[in-house]
Write a sequence for this structure.
């Protein structure tokens, strides 16, 4: 019994004892049993507001998503003719103990069946074996087995295996690939089986902030689902002339490449192709090829195995604000023609150096990449009307598009990429602009013999050894010619002049301020 500080029982203790004694007496007097129980607090149970679940979408689309295993034939690496290609924690055949070499040599002579190929590990001069070199993701786009994935997933492969969400492995054949949009199409033979497939979403209905679900094979783990929102549209990450990516914040990692990003209707809004990550893992910035781009390219690959693109044959660069001012354009939009290649559709139609393409078939051109994408998406042989800004006036040019040759997939538009990657260069034959000039070796233009490192020209990348061929689209061969053109531009109310610079890498335009010149 508890006692108080004086050693006497506390009042609380006395009352508790009295209560228990009273209950005991009641039981003895009445003979009726009395139940004594303890009370406990209830477990936490929060009634949260209802939120949408992605489970229905995932259940519906998962059978259409596959893991793509890419294999390549590895050539024998041994110089002694053994042809052994196994790698045991970094050790080859020569590093094995002598007692083990006969066993593995015999194993190689017997051969090994796998992936429908005979792999000979020990025979001299063997073709090498197929071994996994990459893993990615993909998805069925038709019930008869066509699979969409990324070009960079399959580009180094000799054999391909599609692994379905139920574990079924199917050999796949490469139908076609398009490096410029990083898309590829595989085909599996289901032997009459009809596959679950998905359709493309309407890009016009995809909004920034919409929920999306990414399904794929990150790090080779197999079917994995992540969710997020569309973070941005029209992203240009410098990977090519057709950059027009969706940016999403769903977790996308290595191995997700080629996998689909779905809307909540189970339609493909994009194909995961790249991530921005200093660490190599997801930081919430992923890029997907939009459905509108993929749809047309995939259709061409399924039909012919290749993609036919419209072709102008002109080298172009962006129109900066400085260039727009120098040409008298009110806005820095459109694509500036640096050169029209001889014999190309653009040159035959009369397109000239210094033209600015402002619209295609009446639709405004945003920039050089916009023009490249739109011309490339058109059918070769079709006629297009180009609105151009030439010599301070708007004009119209009709061009019959050619076909971009397969061996020139890195020609016209790639030159455009290089042009955009270089800083604009600007040069003038005037000392006040920081340039020292002299006659050129061939008598055309003005050779730049020196440059002030603190000048606007130097800031814009002009270098000694380059040549000024024109100013405001007028050929120049002396400093007097340059001053004459600049003075006329100032009379026309312009604050900048457009210099065409020739270097060993090609021709480019640079706009320089002319306020202090005269």
């Amino acid at each position: 019994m508890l006692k108080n500080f004086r050693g006497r029982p506390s009042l609380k203790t006395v009352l508790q004892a009295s209560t228990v004694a009273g209950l005991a007496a009641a039981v003895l007097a009445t003979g009726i049993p009395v139940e004594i129980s303890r009370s406990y607090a209830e477990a936490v149970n929060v009634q949260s507001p209802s939120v949408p679940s992605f489970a229905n979408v995932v259940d519906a689309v998962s059978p259409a998503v596959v893991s793509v295993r890419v294999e390549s034939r590895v050539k024998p690496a041994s110089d002694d003719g053994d042809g052994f290609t196994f790698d045991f924690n970094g050790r080859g055949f020569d590093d094995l103990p002598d007692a083990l070499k006969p066993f593995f040599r015999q194993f190689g002579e017997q051969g090994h069946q796998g992936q429908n190929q005979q792999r000979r590990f020990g025979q001299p001069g063997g073709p090498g074996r197929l071994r996994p070199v990459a893993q990615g993701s993909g998805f069925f786009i038709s019930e008869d087995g066509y699979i969409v994935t990324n070009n960079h997933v399959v580009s180094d492969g000799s054999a391909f295996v599609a692994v379905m969400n139920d574990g079924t492995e199917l050999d796949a054949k490469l139908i076609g690939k398009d490096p410029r949009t990083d898309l590829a199409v595989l085909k599996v033979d289901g032997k009459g089986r009809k596959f679950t497939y998905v359709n493309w979403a309407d890009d016009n209905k995809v909004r920034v902030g919409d929920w999306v679900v990414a399904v794929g094979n990150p790090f080779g783990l197999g079917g994995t689902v992540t969710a997020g929102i569309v973070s941005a549209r029209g992203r240009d990450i410098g990977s090519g002339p057709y950059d027009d990516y969706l940016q999403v914040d769903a977790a996308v990692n290595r191995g997700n490449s080629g996998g689909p990003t779905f809307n909540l209707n189970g339609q493909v809004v994009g194909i995961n192709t790249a991530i921005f990550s200093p660490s190599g893992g997801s930081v919430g910035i992923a890029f997907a090829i939009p459905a509108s781009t993929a749809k047309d390219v995939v259709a061409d690959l399924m039909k012919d195995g290749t993609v036919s693109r419209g072709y102008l044959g002109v080298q172009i660069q962006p129109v900066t604000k400085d260039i727009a001012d120098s040409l008298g354009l009110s806005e820095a939009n459109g694509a500036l023609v640096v050169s029209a290649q001889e014999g190309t559709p653009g040159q035959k139609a009369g397109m000239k150096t210094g033209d600015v393409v402002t619209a295609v078939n009446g639709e405004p051109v945003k920039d050089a990449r916009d023009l490249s994408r739109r011309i490339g998406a058109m059918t070769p042989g079709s006629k297009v009307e180009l609105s151009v800004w030439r010599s301070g006036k708007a004009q119209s040019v009709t061009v019959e598009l050619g076909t971009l040759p397969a061996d020139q997939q890195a020609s016209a538009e790639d030159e455009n990429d290089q042009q955009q990657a270089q800083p604009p260069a600007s040069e003038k034959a005037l000392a006040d602009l920081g340039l020292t000039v002299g006659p050129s070796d061939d008598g055309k233009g003005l050779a730049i013999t020196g440059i002030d490192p603190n000048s606007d020209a130097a800031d814009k990348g002009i270098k000694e050894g380059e040549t000024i061929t024109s100013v405001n689209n007028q050929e120049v061969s002396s400093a007097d010619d340059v001053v004459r053109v600049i003075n006329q531009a100032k009379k026309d109310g312009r604050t900048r002049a457009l210099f065409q610079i020739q270097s060993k890498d090609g021709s480019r335009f640079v706009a320089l301020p002319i306020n202090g010149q005269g």
